[in-house]
Amino acid sequence: MKDLFRVNRMWRPRGDLKRRYDVVIVGGGSHGLATAYYLAKNHGVQNVAVLEQSYIGSGASGRNTTIIRSNYRTPEGALFYGKSVELYERLSADLDFNLMFSQHGHLTLAHSDRAMNTMQERAEVNQLLGIDSRVVLPAEIARLCPQLDLSDGPTWPIMGALYHRPGGIIRHDAVVWGLARGADRAGVEIHPNTTVTGIETAGDRVTAVETNRGRVEADVVVSATAGWSTLVCGLAGVRLPITTHILQAFVTEPVKPFLDVIIVSAQMHVYVSQTDRGEFLIGAEIEPYTTYKSVGTLTFLEYSARHVLELFPQLERLKVLRTWTGLCDLSPDYSPILGPTEVENFHVSAGWGTYGFKAAPIVGTTLAELVATGRTPDLIAPFALERFHTDTLVSELAAAAVSH
Q1: Where are the domains of the chain?
Q2: Residue 8: pLDDT above 60?
Q3: Was domain 16-64+173-241+332-399 assigned CATH 3.50.50.60?
Q4: 48 and 21 in contact (C-beta within 8 Å)?
Q5: Statement: residue 402 has pLDDT above 80
Q6: Which of 17, 132, 181, 272 has a Cα at 20 to 30 A from 221?
Q7: Helix, strand, or coil here: 329?
Q8: Closest among 141, 129, 101 to 361, alpha carbons compared
Q9: How far is residue 65's CA from residue 237's CA, in Å, rounded to a whole number?
Q10: Which is it for the CA torsion 36, 40, 41, 44, positive or negative?
Q11: Segment 358-387 mean pLDDT
């Protein structure tokens, strides 16, 4: 029985830490695992350790709302996330693991003339970059989602929407499991319950990490720790201009599936989708206060439920099944911080706010290329930490008005 259990494990049991690795990745979520996977797959770098302070996928990767899209406002953001969607579309085949990716469309609702203008601007940017995104009016919205209340009854009647056909939802746990299994099979070591307590440098170069299980030398260290990024990067003396907030979400009891698209309203600060199990997944904006305390609030449930019922009054009698919170690290321009830092060979993936899960495969691909070649890929160059010193920000607020 013990041998059978060992054969059927998703990845190998944690072994002892080696004295030295070519690359140490801090964070066992989708970004850290994707970086490890693509280091081995695309560059043959196998002497890699992924260190996770809890269980694999315990952070933002296991606490998000599973939406995948690329209809961002800036050319840099739209191109970056467009490549990520392309990778997601073939990731199940690449990993030989069913990620349950359902691309059934994404509607960002507009409730005012100004919102309609913003949607048109986003659509034009998307179309110039080859991204399937266009403005639709209530008649077409009614065809795409007949369950929506398109009357004048809601507080903010629907005037139109940005329709992003490739948008969809994916099983977040499956993404983590698939990437972990793929990395493990390629020779990467995965170490859960391993907390990084210090990062050593010599001169301006990273040399080792201290953990609760001992010291480990490394040529390269990558921090991919979402809400904990300021603390981990602080161990290396790297200051990040980000704040940490919580994002809340909840699901209802399951019912027969009838919602085939993802609905988002920035005006009402709410988004809704239906899972493969029939649950309605509902989320809103990050909480305005900074905290590491993952405790949900009744206020969130009240206003989210109220706004959802304005869009879908037929959900009135559904019961809430469970709620959860996750940590989000927010940058000043609502774009990520990705790539090298002032400490040589210490790289970071941070500042994603609520949008990091959408970027997992492209983050893994580009960070792996950076680590293996020493050159920053053009696709992530605009998201460098130094942009906050050179005043070359990538303001993504127009496409990030609600956390989805």
Answers
A1: 16-64+173-241+332-399, 101-167+244-330
A2: no
A3: yes
A4: yes
A5: no
A6: 181
A7: strand
A8: 101
A9: 32
A10: positive
A11: 98
